Structures are given as C-alpha cells and as structure tokens.
Amino acid sequence: MSSQKIETGHQDMVHDAAMDYYGKRLATASSDGTVRVLSIGPNSQLLATLTGHNGPVWRASWAHPKFGTFLASCGYDGKVIVWKEASVGTNQWSQVHVFTDHTSSVNSISWAPHELGLSLACGSSDGFISVSTARQDGTWETVQIDRAHPVGVTSVSWAPAVAPGAFSGNFVHKIASGGFDSSVRIWEMINGVWQSETASISQVHKDWVRDVAWAPGLGLKSTVVSCSQDGTVVVWTKGKEGEAWRGKTVKDFGVPVWRVSWSLTGTMLSISDGEGNVTLWKEGQNGNWEQVTKVEM
C-alpha cells in the first residue's frame, strides 16, 4: 500500500492527523501549539493555521458536515476549542466554543454520531470526561462524568447511535474510555445521567491504555478495540445487553501501541505502534485477527 507525503509546515512534533468527512482536507495537531488545515491531493496546500492553544495540541477531530464545518482540538493547556468555518471552502475559521473547565491536559476528543446532535466528548488527565452539546441558540451545555478514571483519562470514543439489533430511531448514548489505570470503561446515559455500564471491562492490559475505538455498528454485536503502553491490542465484543464483554488479543507488539482505528465498514482495523509502523488487520473465519498489509512510509 503506497502513501502520500504531506508537508504540514509545523515547527514541532505532529501528534494527530484527521481527514474530514469527504477525505479532501486534513487537520493536524502539533506541539507547536497550532492546528493546521491542509488540502489532500497531488499538490497539497496549507489552507489555514488555527491558533489559540497555549502549548502542545494533542488531537483534532472533524464533526459531521450535517451541522456545517466544525473542527475540535484539545491540548496540554486543558482547553478544548471548537472551530467553525464561515462557509465551506472559505478557509476562514473562528472559535465558537472554548471549554476551559478541565484542570489538566485534555488528551482525547470524540464527536458523537450525528443522530445524537452536535456533541463532543473530552477526556482529561484530571480524571474527568466532559460532554459538551450545542444548543439551538448557539450556546453549549456541558456535563461531566466525575472520576471516570481517577488517575487520568487517555482516550474516549462514542458508540454508534443505534445498538446492535435495535430498530433505527432507538438511539443510545454510550462512550468507551481508556485511562492511566490500565482499564477500559463503558459509559451510558440513562435518564439524563451518565453511568458506568461495568466497573471495568479490561483486566488484560498491564500498563496505561493509549487509545480506544468503538467499531461502526454494522453487525449483531458491539465491538471496541483498545491498545496499551504494554504493547497489546485487544478487541472487546458483546452481544445482547447484560452479557459480559469478551476480550481477544490481536497481538502483543512488544512496543507501545499508540493508536487504533476502524474502517468505515468496521471490518478492517488500523494499528500504529511505537516503532513507526502502521498495519492493517482483519478478523479471520477462525476468529483470530490476521495482518492484511503494512503501510509503507
């Protein structure tokens, strides 16, 4: 699999890169304190440089275009900034929401499925998860999950809006989170209150969880993948409500694993490890995960 090199122009390490919904623009987050928006194509160009963070920016994430062009970023300064483009293609961005309630680094952000509205989950080293939702009048309402991971939250990921096997329209609000406590937890909003589904679904990881990703809901089971500083990647599955989560180790890479993500169909898993390798994996008929290819850098 070939790759395209894009010069970002950042003056320091790049921590995250996220494509927009249409795969035409790339947002990058860097230790130089900026978020950059670039075009994707044979002649990639810098379209905008977004400034507002006071320190390294860890993540950048695009919202669904149903709401317009929104981009969120989070960083070491404890800020979460929601940016909006004036109109598509103008590359004129403004800050429409700055959330500063976290008292420590915000390490991860995740937009909710569009069916649930314009809502952003954020995980912080202060141990809290915050969920900010846009109101119709342009203001934002924020609720917090207190002490989600007492020693710090490293990653958050929204579940699909429709649970496996459920009818369309019966929406659920669920979030998976990983923490410095080496655990993965599942949260569900019930009667307007966020509650822990289980105390912990992960007793497998022996070091902190670097990333979690909830797979698209195209089957009859819920699927979450987690990766850890200990080098392991685990895929967690659950069928009906009330059943226990079951973990299957994809591989012990022997080096820290930084990021995991799913294809749009949920059939392919991308894994990025501490040696700079990006590999793609698929579940075989025997239930074991098999490497399909390695992305050549």
Automatic annotation (TrEMBL):
Is Protease among this UniProt entry's keywords? no
Which Gene Ontology terms describe the biological processes this protein takes part in?
COPII-coated vesicle budding; protein import into nucleus
- Any Pfam family hit: WD40
One Gene Ontology MF term:
structural molecule activity
Q: Which InterPro entries match?
A: Sec13/Seh1_fam, WD40/YVTN_repeat-like_dom_sf, WD40_repeat_CS, WD40_repeat_dom_sf, WD40_rpt
The answer to keyword S-adenosyl-L-methionine applying to this record is no
Query: In its UniProt entry, what is this protein called?
Result: Protein SEC13
Describe the family membership recorded for this protein in Swiss-Prot or TrEMBL: Belongs to the WD repeat SEC13 family.
WD repeats: from-to residues: 7-48, 50-84, 202-236
Residues passing through the membrane, by range: none
Species whose genome carries this gene: Carex littledalei
The alphabetical list of record keywords is: Protein transport, Repeat, Transport, WD repeat
Q: Which GO terms describe its cellular component?
A: COPII vesicle coat; nuclear pore outer ring
